[in-house]
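Q: Could you fold this chain for me?
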Amino acid sequence: MAIYTILTKKELSNIADEFLLGDLVSFTGVKNGSVNTHYLLETKKGKFFAKIDEVKGELEVKQELDLLLHLRKQNFPCHQPQKTKAGRFTIDFQGKCLTVSKYIDGVELPVTTITAAQLNATGHALANLHLLGRSYKKSIDNRFGFNRIVGIYRDVRRQLPTHLKNIIRVLDDEFGYLENYLDNNLPKGIIHGDLFPDNVKFKGNRLTGVMDFEASCRGKLIYDLATAVNALCYIEDRYQIDRFEALIAGYESLRPLSLPEWDSFPNELRFSALRFTVTRIKDFYLKKMDENHRIYKDYKEFYDRLLILRREKSGGMEDILLAMATGYDYRKYQKSKPAK
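A: Sure. Below is the predicted structure, expressed as structure tokens.
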């Protein structure tokens, strides 16, 4: 979430009227996030989010809305898109798609305060998303797959200053490594793609909502889990094994990982760290704008993770790798024998 398109009170009042939200009482621009504009609206009927897609075209926006509606029908705790007077889910605003969704109760927590029970609930919710996604048969293109990130990096690399030559060397080497060692023959389905602390809400230990399906698509399920690990299990400059175990336990309570997924986990962690390093360089380091309108996200946060994952820097990976090496439980897949 961020603020790239400035909306006036009158414009927001008109939006509230168009989406049948009731009279506008107050509004606030939401700064945290990367690519889209968000406003929190409070009306006489409650609280809502207005979102202007700054990147996606109409087709991509409709695909995201269609997925949300599918998940809501199955009681997954995500945003509920609102209809206009004409029964549509989008309106055109300055040539961009504007949508409105109902506010989700609960609080977003800093990563350092998320408890083991909340991590367990988050893992459980992510596995639930992956299982519910099996019934969603429509295709959603992955804008952040390996080949797409290669293309983004080629453009980024040309713009990076020479004093970052050490970073360029690492990124060049990592792309070369992953090109040879990423496994594409893994379970795929609907993924969230961006399960960060600010995209999850809680009431106590109960998860009340998963937000921001901007990066949702059809992709590798283990990549989605790896992104959650990178976002939620890394604090104080290192990976924390207790947080990893809590998240994985919640996930495997619904969907146990296969042996190939466990084997691929370290490389998926590396690709996730690489992806966010590159996109943050593109969206923040190289893209200058008024910082009053968004929160700056430093690419070095994920570059540091990448160095640890490449074993070039200490940071708790030994325990994580050991847990992955022993994480596959054959008993989960053995067929029970009839009693004699």
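A (continued): The radius of gyration is 21 Å.
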